[in-house]
Amino acid sequence: MQFFPAALQNLADQFARLPGIGGKTAQRLAFHVLSLPMEDAEEFAAAILEAKKTVKHCPRCQNLTDREICPICDDETRDHSLICVVAEPKDVIAMERSREFRGVYHVLHGVISPLNHVTQDDIRIKELLQRVAKGDVREIIMATNPDTEGEATAMYISRLLRPMETKVTRLAYGISVGSQLEYADEVTLARALEGRREI
To answer: Residue 48 belongs to what domain range?
Structure first.
């Protein structure tokens, strides 16, 4: 027996596909959207469509941008010979909050995770190697999360970079093992940057 109109159920099902959203939360969100005035609902839908149409990957660092080159890569005052490798775009925001890092980034869009069927070919490692191969990179800071997948990804990339004779360092463990970069406070991130080590 169907309790809700098909369109409402479909809306709840779409919300349930989002990470971290369970069935009950998806229903609450669907009911909330239905309670919005039509103008607000149209603005919400338009914002989703506009983001999908305009946001793309920066061709240099793979971060999200709506410009040809992201503002960080386009900033000539930053040290382009220092690249901080992160797993996700949200990690760039976390690192920028520390106000300690003045280099540029490379976003992998994931980590190697055999259990989740994510291999080295599924993330942006090839683009990183191409950047380093061009020269002018003096150090790569591996800033993947300090969990099993993050560590495995950092070690894999460091092995690939070894023949290129580029210094590869890892964030120091001011960040606790198993935690996520996006939840780290500014002081912890600053200490982790200062205490990075070569791998």
So the answer is: 6-54
- DSSP assigned state of 75: -
What span, in angstroms and rounded, lies between the C-alpha atoms of 170 and 180? 15
Look-up of token digits 């709506």:
66
Candidates 119, 132, 128; CA nearest to 58 is: 128
- Nearest-CA neighbor of 89 among 64, 70, 65? 64
**Block mean pLDDT (10 aa), the chain, length 199:** 80 93 94 95 95 96 96 96 96 91 96 89 94 92 90 93 90 72 76 74
pTM of the shown model: 0.79
Is 71 among the domain residues?
no
Number of domains present in the structure of the chain: 2
